[in-house]
Design goal:
C2_domain_sf; four-stranded antiparallel β-sheet; mainly beta; C2_dom; C2 domain-containing protein; elongated; Immunoglobulin-like; Ingression_C2_domain
């Protein structure tokens, strides 16, 4: 079974200064079995962080091969300055178990935090299908597998409804209007029918006959008769 080594560079700690006490621009390279991979550089720091840059190496013999880390001070106009190195044996690393180690510089108290992961090469090829590579650094990104879903279309046949009523009937394809109450559904009680009130106003009771008023009259008008004159 062919194996590969996955190296994840995390951070450096207490790295040496440049001449005159200036901070370096750290850059790291890894070497394994004739393969060489280089990281990006961090500016003006002795405590660099690489945010998990990932490197892949073909691993031929885990018992004899040694991973070498080289530290450089990055230069823009000239060759990078070598600042130190460290080594890590792979002999006792478990298979398919990520293991975090500290690689100590041999000539300085500084060290690097690195994660090592020995994997099956065939499995790694599947992972690489969803990865992109920047320079020598491969960064894993999730792979999106397109899924094609065929829409299921059920044919629907609609029989036209022809109304026997002459005139303006219902358009073909529309259900005929239903009249009255729908038939009761199984399990539900029949709809309650309420009595309809009689139409019109109820007959009114007549008023009782009124008692007549006593006849009114006025005393006869005129002057009372005068006694006649005596006869002579």
């Amino acid at each position: 079974m062919t194996r590969r080594l996955l190296v994840t560079l995390q951070a450096g700690h207490n790295l040496p200064h440049k001449s005159l006490g200036r901070n370096p621009d750290p850059l790291v390279t890894f070497e394994l079995g004739g393969q060489r991979k280089s990281s990006s550089h961090c500016s003006n720091t002795t405590q660099p962080t690489w945010h998990n840059q990932i490197f892949y190496f073909d691993l031929k013999d885990q018992n004899t091969e040694v991973l070498t880390l080289n530290l450089y001070d990055y230069e823009t106009l000239s060759k990078n300055d070598f600042m130190g190195k460290g080594t890590q044996s792979l002999q006792h690393l478990p298979f398919n178990v990520p293991t975090t180690v500290n690689i100590q510089l041999t000539n300085h108290r500084g060290y690097f935090t690195v994660q090592l992961h020995i994997q099956d090469a065939a499995m790694q090829q599947v992972i690489n299908q969803g990865a992109y590579q920047t320079g020598y650094v491969s960064q894993v990104v999730p792979q999106v597998v397109p899924v094609h879903v065929s829409p299921i279309v059920s044919p629907v046949h609609v029989s036209p409804v022809i109304s026997p009523v002459q005139g303006y009937g219902s358009p073909p394809g529309y259900p005929q209007p239903q009249y009255g109450y729908p038939a009761p559904q199984p399990g539900y009680p029949a709809p309650q029918v309420y009595p309809q009130p009689p139409m019109g106003y109820p007959p009114q009771q007549g008023y009782p006959p009124q008692q007549g008023y006593p006849p009114q009259g006025y005393p006869p008008q005129g002057y009372p008769g005068q006694p006649g004159y005596p006869m002579y």
